[in-house]
Amino acid sequence: MVNFFAAARLAFLWIVVTAGLLAAGAARGQPAQGPDVVQWVNPLMGTDSKPELSNGNTYPAIALPWGMNFWLPQTGKMGSGWAYQYSADKIRGFKQTHQPSPWMNDYGQFALMPITGQPRFEEDARASWFSHKAETATPYYYRVYLADHDVTTEIAPTERAARFRFTFPKTDSAYVVLDALDKGSYVKLLPQQNKIIGYTTRNSKGVPPNFKNYFVLEFDRPFTSTAIYQDKKLDTSGLEAQANHTGAVVGFRTRKGEQVNVRVASSFISPEQAELNLWEIGADDFEAVKQKARQAWNQQLGRIQVEGGSDDQLRTFYSCLYRSLLFPRKFYELDAAGKPVHYSPYNGQVLPGYLYTDTGFWDTFRALFPFLNLMYPSVNAQVQEGLVNAYLEGGWLPEWGSPGYRNVMIGNNSASVVADAYLKGGRGYDINKLYEALVHGANNAGPLQAVGRAGADYYNKLGYVPYDVKINENAARTLEYAYDDFTIYQLAKALGRPQKEVNLYAKRSQNYRNLFDKQTGLMRGKNQNGKFQAPFNPFKWGDAFTEGNSWHYTWSVFHDVQGLMDLMGGAKPFVATLDTVFTLAPVFDESYYGSVIHEIREMQIAGMGNYAHGNQPIQHMVYLYNYAGQPWKAQYWAREVLNRLYQPTPDGYCGDEDNGQTSAWYVFSALGFYPVCPGTDQYVLGAPLFKKVTLQLENGRQVVLSAPNNSADNRYIRGLQFNGQAYNYNWLSHQALLQGATLDFDMAPTPTTTRGTTPEAAPYSFSKPKKGRK
């Protein structure tokens, strides 16, 4: 048997050395000491939420970018998806979390809580009042005063470990509670080593039967007392328990202001790997861990340097950028040799290689993944390698992974995520295996309705998923499948696939036409016999659509806006229909759901008509004016959404933040462009929010977006120069930006109705290919 601790120390040395190398590689082109931009991040943005109304549905994630483990102060009941709510006034524990959203809930979670007085365990008994006035929340550091216990808790994270620092009063009754939660857990006290080890099996589905999260806690002093919790009983004589619900309470005697330090780590692989992950901290004290975490955030956030905005705009921008760098999270660990290895949530085995999880492609294909392809392509290359592993281990690509397959949302949008990464230069992974996975998923219904394509046989035969065959949200599925087929077509061309195969997916990309109802000028469900659903209410949420109505989903033709425009009768009626979305009253029909879901309420109260920015299907819509020769309307509405629907406050979002997607919309739109159609080379122009932004690309080049006369009034583009030359197109090329570029915007207070109005200025549409454009 190998000397594990010797291997652990060797691995720690490897981690220390390679962490610096990896950091340098990830920040190529950036000065060693970048700006301290993390100061602008508010992790509490979006936390003032509840099931009935989402202002983000976020929690303060104390973590590193894309870290495997996050930490949060838990105000909600253990097991509740609403783990932290700004309106709460008590904290029940500090939880290691892997929760991507309250709707998906958590897995592999456990919690710590310092208390004083009588030893106790139950979450209501140990809970303490707290105030935001005595709370500090940053991405790299959290601090709060627990009034009932007169204890201050501090947390500083690494990717798979964390340091806790508890400052106690003078007492012989200071305790730290470890809650391994219910649904099956194990705890063992090792007093001679000042340690607690164990595991939790708590999850919300998406895991194999052998799933465990193994944890290790190492204290900096001996215990003066110990107790084991086992299914509602606290036993001071035992040191070990395996039951439905286990935990531990360890005691200390402390002087006033004395600090108890705890190093914590976990692993999905094994207890030994948890010990190995603890060496991410190594000999670093609390302040060192905190400063390294701060540096890690500044390194990634500092890749985008913003100038010339208000303090609130800077806070909103960097808070959104922070949210854009959390998911998908790393689900791999580093073995004793420093090689990536992961527990597979698809087959329960421990296997080599990368794996990422906790993202729903229905949300994030739109802006989050294109953002990674622009600014953090090396990260997305690892994500793509992880998708290869997911396919090999589970037989399908995940559409919503948390951590394995979850049966939620629709579409087959892994096609977009895979195609966009490769077409924008992603390399170093088996793209042919991923293409095989895309073809498999596009032509088969999966083991879950949200894996593969529900209704694939109908879709491939009829060109749409019928309304009357008991497949819910069928029109939305059809529209998304058509777009996904376009991305497969694009990838097939790039990989030199047989022309017959290329043509098949090109033809299927036009299936959106089968659902366009000329009578209403909107998309509409269609029965198996070819007749449209009746009756039809374009304001009805759900039913044929997904978390939206026909007014929202009609625009889901990302790849062929010109084709949609032609169906509507040309540019004039197309623009009129776009305008109508904003001028309609926020009326709705919620009968499909039986109650008003939070997405409906968020649209209703936003004051922007029937425009529902709080949910994903319509988020690209404001940019479609560029296709119809009226780019100034895109500029106007993009600025309206930026100004009115985002704030750096606990109620700062207008709906679910959704794993970085809604945040990435803000980041892109503040830069002045947006990826309407991932799978193409183009970004569609809006208008910049700031006077100057500098993008430090991974390849060492810079993109400088300069708009010196930008202001609250000057929101319209009067003129644009690209590398010193007049530029009249309504789109930017990804490949051109990668070469390094300077964009000079001349901003004005009134629309310029002569720039970008010609058909040649319009972005790409499948029905209107342009020479030299992809």
UniProtKB/TrEMBL annotation:
Glycosyl hydrolase family domain residues: 273-748
Assembly and oligomerization: Monomer.
Cofactor(s) of this protein: Ca(2+)
Keywords: Calcium, Signal
Source domain of life: Bacteria
Amino acid composition bias (Low complexity), ranges on this chain: 748-763
Protein name (Swiss-Prot/TrEMBL): Alpha-1 2-mannosidase
Region called Disordered, residue ranges: 748-774
Region forming the signal peptide: 1-23
Domain Glycosyl hydrolase family 92 N-terminal: 40-267
Lineage, uppermost ranks: Bacteria, Pseudomonadati, Bacteroidota, Cytophagia, Cytophagales
Xref: InterPro entries: 6-hairpin_glycosidase_sf (IPR008928), GH-type_carb-bd (IPR014718), GH92_a_mannosidase_put (IPR005887), GH92_N (IPR041371), Glyco_hydro_92 (IPR012939), PNGase (IPR050883)
UniProt xrefs under Pfam families: Glyco_hydro_92, Glyco_hydro_92N
